Fold Arginine kinase.
Amino acid sequence: MQTPFPQRPVVQTDLAQTDLANTPLSALARSQSLVANYLTHAVYLALKDKVTPSGSTLQQAIQSNVDNPDSAIGFYAMDAASYQIFAPLLNPIIKAYHGNIPDRQSGLIMPLDDAKKSAWRFEAGAESLIVSTRIRTARNLADFAFGGMLMPKDRQAVQSQIVDALATLPAALQGQYETIQAMDEQRQSALIASHYLFKQGDRFLASAGLNNDWPNNRGIFLAADKRFLVWVNEEDHLRIISMQKGHDISSVYERLVMAFDCLQQHLNFAEDPRLGVLASCPTNIGTGIRASVHIRLPHLAQQGERLKALANRYHLQVRGQAGEHSDNAGNPIVDLSNRRRLGLSALDCINDLVLGVNAIIREEKRLSR
């Protein structure tokens, strides 16, 4: 998932002044992405002939940026090894987005103690503004290429392993797995409209190979109470999601912990000692945690730049209600989520959300007086 990076440092590159003008990379001269900022001539020459264990190259990793100059990041990892092989490009991108690379990063989803529970309190009046709360974490299986390089038989094997693991979930989380291929159009539309199911990827994901062999071996596990779900073979192998109406973020997190504790006993996830969880998009490494609320902001939603500036101050990202790159014009409901995922614990990621949302609620109240 490519996400906007505010106040990005500008690094002088030499793409336009080199023989890269004779390659597809010339498109990057028109881009303001992090890849365009950090892919100097020297870095390109050092990496252009490198090949990862899954057979991917630098060209494939940045193809989405070549096709889409308006990319914010511009890089999709095709396997876990990409983070080492293309480190001369990826490390500065990761530092620019996340702030730093820690000496050690845990991707563990940790139990919630009483101290954190009491700290996770939304501002008074939040119940009238927060429509729903969601926490998800991204994961990929260690023994397979990531989605952009996944062959059909391997995508089927990934799905099979995940479905077997889902069968071991505790009774409170039991539900049904459905493949997208087996759904009729009405069922798909209903699940998408309810914000349960993912759609075929946009142009950014398509250029990264993440729509290949669509919709085969992709699906959704939905718990009976519809408060827990798992996306299989979307941008990453798994998106483990806990969600519910209202603003009880502690309950949402505890449900995620329950599910993750079970799934990690049966699945081997791709991780790195310094980078933590490894994902297709470098924005999702570290904890892989994205905590979010859909919140009604009648005043601030009409002042987009003001809302984004306040969100940036608290390390939050603003999206439309329908997700990334969605048109939210005229809609008072926006999606707010934590932006930082590396160098923090899972609990700290959620604390970012709570602190930022509280500041935004206070400003919304002030504007409504």
Notes: The CA atoms of residues 29 and 323 lie 28 Å apart. The longest strand covers residues 130-139. The chain has twelve helices and ten strands.
